[in-house]
Write a structure and sequence with these properties.
The structure holds 2 protein chains of 2 kinds.
Chain A: E1 5-7, E2 10-13, E3 19-24, E4 31-37, E5 43-50, E6 53-56, E7 65-68, E8 75-79, E9 88-95, E10 105-106, E11 110-114
Chain B: E1 4-7, E2 10-14, E3 19-25, E4 31-37, E5 44-49, E6 55-58, E7 61-65, E8 71-76, E9 85-92, E10 99-100, E11 104-109
Parallel strand pairs in B: 2-11
Antiparallel strand pairs in B: 1-3, 3-8, 4-5, 4-9, 6-7, 7-8, 9-10, 9-11
Chain lengths: 115, 110
């Protein structure tokens, strides 16, 4: 019974390149959340998606960042034209229904380094 | 936006000692959660609290949801070396987003 799977675990990009982070939710979970963690800080909410729908993207920068959760396949967080300040750990979480009451399971994260 | 103030930032204790950490907020939360994060891993849920005044235990861990709904504490009794890690509180109002504290780094000396 696999947990939330994120890949890659580590990603190095040069400034200006694109970064694509993937998240496969737990089996039976249709809600996905993305959070960003800067070094020595707590996690900050970015976006909440259900299948084919963005429910809340209020935590996501307006430019260069986008997220999707297609009908088939993993959720993707895309960062275009990366800058050094994008270096962080990006965590995905999933739940079977809306809200933390139903269990919010985090993946192991993707550590993005922009050089 | 909402902010959680978590303290202390770090703690250095001897094995066997008890530990207490807390979170406060200027806003009301409907749910309080406590997570532990090991290096290189994602947060793992320790305890979830859903009602003001609720006191919940999970093994050596005890957490309480403050009556005002603006604070919560986590206690760890008889600490052991594997308790080392970063502990985060998180609050939820409505919807699904969580607001996290800045974390408490716990070091346990054997």
């Amino acid at each position: 019974n696999a947990g939330v799977m994120q890949n890659p675990r580590h990603l190095v990009r040069r400034r200006g390149q694109e970064a694509r982070l993937r998240c496969s939710p737990m089996k039976g979970h249709s809600h996905v959340y993305w959070y960003r963690q800067l070094p020595e800080e707590g996690l900050k909410f970015m976006v909440y998606l259900q299948k084919e729908n963005i429910i809340d993207e209020s935590g996501m920068p307006k430019e260069r960042f986008s997220a999707e959760f297609p009908k088939e396949g993993p959720s993707i967080l895309r960062i275009q034209q990366v800058v050094r300040g994008d270096s962080a750990a990006y965590f995905c979480a999933s739940s079977p229904l809306t809200g933390a009451n139903y269990g919010y399971t985090f993946g192991s994260g993707t550590r993005l380094t922009v050089v | 936006g909402q902010q959680l103030n978590q303290s202390p930032q770090s703690m250095f204790i001897q094995e066997g000692e008890d530990v207490s950490m807390n979170c406060t907020s200027s806003s009301i939360f409907n749910t309080w959660l406590w997570y532990k994060q090991d290096p290189g891993e994602g947060p793992v849920l320790l305890i979830a609290l859903y009602k003001a005044g609720e006191l919940t235990s999970n093994g050596r861990l005890t957490a309480q949801f403050g009556i005002t709904r603006k604070d919560s504490f986590l206690n760890i009794s008889a600490s052991i070396p594997s308790d080392v890690g970063i502990y985060f509180c998180a609050g939820q109002t409505s919807g699904s987003r969580l607001t996290f504290g800045e974390g408490t780094q716990l070091t346990v000396n054997p």
